[in-house]
Amino acid sequence: MPDVSLPVDLRSDTVTKPTRQMRAAMADAEVGDDVLGDDPTVIALQEKAAQLLGKQAALFVPSGTMANQIAIAAHTHPGDEIISDISSHVYYYEAGAFAALSGCSIKFCHGDRGIFTPDMVAASVRPDDSHFPRSRLVIIENTHNRGGGTIWPLERIAEIRRVADRHDLILHTDGARLMNASIASGIPPADFVQHCESVSICFSKGLGAPVGSIVAGCSDFIRQAHRLRKRFGGGMRQVGILAAAAQYALDHHLNRLADDHDHAKLLAAGLADIRGIDVDPATVQTNIVLFDLDESVGPADAFCDRLHAAGVWMFPFGPQRLRAVTHLDVSRDQIVAAIDIIRQCAADAAK
Ligand SMILES: *Cc1c(COP(=O)(O)O)cnc(C)c1O
Asked: From the CB of 13, is ligand 1 less than 6 Å away?
């Protein structure tokens, strides 16, 4: 086993810490009052992000949740219905905000690892009848977190757009990990969201910034987003110090996402060799590895505790399922070491 530092923290790509160089960029950032619209570093980041995503404008916000919730609030009225995958982040992990803040309901598609079909969308659209909520917004999550970091095929998004046009639906991409999708596939981020009215991306995941997300769309949408950000309490003042971290991440941490994807594949290949663990390495497309435990190894939460004590940290993701996420602060050697530790823990657990 290589001599590496423990723990190997695979709980999430949100655990990355800003590097020394990123901190230097933050310390040197020019700032202004961004609520008044005069923080030059934020303005530059928003322009760069809008260009990257092929949209007219973009707005810097504190979190991916706020970015998604601003989009939902801008696109819907209370009583409207959203269509998304049953395991979508907006449903699963945003504290019910679609209902609490925007008064929406959600109708679920049961996709394959988070990727649903145009037929599922069409079947979810409510008839135009006063009994029903109005179907309004389709949310595509790319890559799909609970699906295991899956990438949406471009053609599938185009097909969803055609159904959306038939039923007067708006499309939003939750692109917290859109850059992972882009680096893994070689498809520019703007191409992935060309059919969507709006998109959110996160800087605080694999890109390694401490805080920050972007929501982007047409100029009218961003004007609305501005008011909603203020209403949700997300107006920030000399926030150029955070925008500088995001800018640094785009300049220096984008292409290296490919390393995280290699590490995830390496981990999955290693796990596939371990007795009592079930994983299909072919399903690993980006930086997330989902794997299942055989009953003989016990339940996922107990196995996570055992791993934690041995210096490999991850989260249970179901009764028998775990999730591991690779990122900037995990080296190849640490992955190799983690595989050995997991093998030992699986053997001990099965005793
Ligand atoms: C992390 C994540 C978000 C945003 O989460 P925050 O913690 O609010 O920044 C949104 N969507 C997906 C798919 C995510 O994984």
From this structure: no
